[in-house]
Amino acid sequence: MQIGFAKNDVTPRVGVELCGFGPYLNRRSIGVRDRLWARAMAVQQDGTTVVLIGNDLIGVSGDTTARIRRLVHEATGVSPDAVMVHCTHTHSGPTTIPINGWAAADVPYLETLPQRIAAAGIQAVANLQEATLSHAEVPCEGVAVNREYDHDAQPLEEVLRDDWRPAKPELTDTTCHVLAAHAGDRLIGFASHFGCHPVVCCAETRYIHGDYAGVATNLLERENPGSAGLFLQGALGDVNTCVVHKPEPESLLALDVIASRYANAVRRGLAEAQPLAVDEVRYALRPVTFSRKPLTVDDLRARLAEQDAILQAPDATDVSPEVRMAAVYALAYRALIAAMEAGRSVAEPTELQGFRLGPLSLLGAPFEIFQAIKNDVRDAAKPATAFVMGPTNECLGYAPDRTAAARGGYAADTVPLMLGMMPYASIHDELVRELTALEDELR
């Protein structure tokens, strides 16, 4: 087996808007706290090569992924179907996904981004060398809390104690997976996999960084000179860090504390990792069209009228968060109505992608996946170990579990409409079925 790692800087210039926390916030960056990176791992065995590129970004569009794949293929010959583009989902980087209101897109940055990301993948292939891959699953606690089902908010001084734990840890990931690649005795690269929304900071923070995942990975790379490390985001849809939306001083303090906790877990994994018997490397793509709720044009017109009433009220101003949110909805409803009246589809297909590295299956989906979905997929994949990863190759909002979908609200109904799509009808069952089928194909 041959393995190669590489990284390339994807930090935007200071002044670009940062993506996350709400609509039309004019949240322009004022400095770089930690640089953002595209990090790549290439694995080759028996003539098959796969390339996984992890990015300190909120997500990418399908078009961006297609451009990256083409560039990597043209430079290396690796099949486009064997290139996976994954993101950590940081909210302290530039906007890189098409979502109305969530920061203005910076055209020069977006135009140069595909080649900057592809450069990491191309160099990782060039760096392929004989290596061993090791794996460990280690405790990772004191980082996350389930925001949907564990509402016991605690004071900052409590959650920053080393012995803090959430009331319901079973509703979060309590372990992280660590992969380590060695050429002889030298660590050439590593990857860690953990499911938690990476955001620690707040809407008032304007520094560029990769949230706790990026800060921790940068720290670990400095401790291991010459290595590159990927953070593989897991089921983050209903899980937050234990500190989020606090004022800026508290946020930046918590950012370092939580990053340190995560780095400690990965250090332990690097120390305890045992060699994997990688008998085969495989890849697969699975195109899927998920079913949608049957909203009609008349339904959308009624919803648009509600938002127009807010926007056209005599006292409406852009200072109001309600007005800014109404603008997001109005743009989305108008686009959906126009598409339906023109006979265009409002349920576009997407793709799921998987890599198999011996006993490990890396399953990527373009969603912020809820923990219950991940648990069902992992149970179905046993005895193989499945990494359920999102957002990958695209960013299409949330994949809520059955309970959250039945309840409705932000994750189930609001975000799809904000993205110009109909809400999903049965994403829990359909995503489990399709990811399980993808894992079966990889076997």
Report what the structure shows.
- It is a single chain.
- With 443 residues, the chain is an alpha/beta fold.
- It folds into two domains: 2-282, no CATH class; 297-341.
- Helix content is 35%, strand content 24%.
- The strands form six sheets. The protein has a five-stranded mixed β-sheet, covered by helices on one side. The protein has a five-stranded mixed β-sheet with strand order 12-10-9-7-14. It has a four-stranded mixed β-sheet with strand order 15-16-17-19, covered by helices on one side.
- The two termini are 18 Å apart.
- The model has no long low-confidence stretch (mean pLDDT 95).
Structural class: alpha/beta
- On the 0 to 100 scale, the average pLDDT is 95
Counting structural domains, the number is 2
Number of helices: 11
Main sheet: which strands, in order across? 5-4-3-1-6
Q: Give the overall shape.
A: globular
The major pleated sheet works out as: 5 strands, mixed
Strand percentage lies at 15-25%
